[in-house]
Amino acid sequence: MLRTACPDGKVVGLELWFDGLRYAQSRSAGFLVQGDVRHCPFGKPFDLIGLFDVLEHVQEERETLDSLWNLLARGGRLLLTVPAHPSLWSYFDEAAHHCRRYSAQDIRQKLTDAGFQVEFLSQFMACIFPMVWIFRKIRGLRKLSDSDTARSRTSDEFRLVPIVNQVLTALLTLEARWLARGHHLPIGTSLVVVARRPA
After folding, report:
1. What are phi and psi of 182, to 5 degrees?
2. Average pLDDT in the chain
3. How far apart are CA 64 and CA 102, in angstroms?
4. Are 194 and 78 in contact, with CB atoms under 8 Å apart?
5. Tell me: the pLDDT tens digits for 111-125?
6. What are phi and psi of 100, to 5 degrees?
7. pTM of the entire structure?
8. What is the DSSP track for 66-95?
């Protein structure tokens, strides 16, 4: 996907865990490196860094943002996605080993504190927000049993129903086009941010 988005650029992927790196290699022909973003092996800065649903897993949040700032060239941009709405915290976040969910104000402040200029910030995945909210709130009312773990509840959410999956894919494609034009969405289960290191 990144090669399609940046056909003239040199695309490099970074993965902390070896198992994750092997999985990425099975899905991409790109240049992939095992490493920690806080101690990067790269000697040259990047014009664009994408961090997609990663920051919420990291305990050392500010240290990670500082490292990303240092990895960017002056005027370079960070494209970031994180889960939205702390009120949506549920068994799903526990199974996914999330440390936090973010409000728009929270992620904006943290990026600003790290020296970034936030150029664009919006919620997205609006089409699934009602389903996610209802599903997780209702299921969250029931206590987890030995046979009904956070992981098993999360697995249930990822079962694909072909027709539903096709409809949601079409709706999310429309959302992506709307956001690409610089518009915002008022609700969503995630946040997308474009932040720049000042020139």
Report:
1. 90, 10
2. 85
3. 16
4. yes
5. 999 999 999 999 999
6. -170, 160
7. 0.83
8. HHHHHHEEEEEEEEEEEEB-GGG--HHHHH
Q: Rounded to whole angstroms, how far apart are CA atoms 125 and 71?
A: 29
Question: Using CA atoms, how far apart are residues 29 and 44, in angstroms rounded to an integer?
Answer: 22
Task: Give helix then strand counts, H and E, for the chain.
Answer: 8, 6
Q: How many residues does the chain have?
A: 199
DSSP 97: T
Distance CA 161, CA 152 (A): 17
CA distance 116 to 78: 9
Please give the Cα distance from 179 to 104 (Å, whole number): 16
* pLDDT greater than 60 at residue 144: no
CA 195, 39, 61: angle at the middle one, nearest 5?
50
φ/ψ of 91, rounded to 5, equals: -55, -30
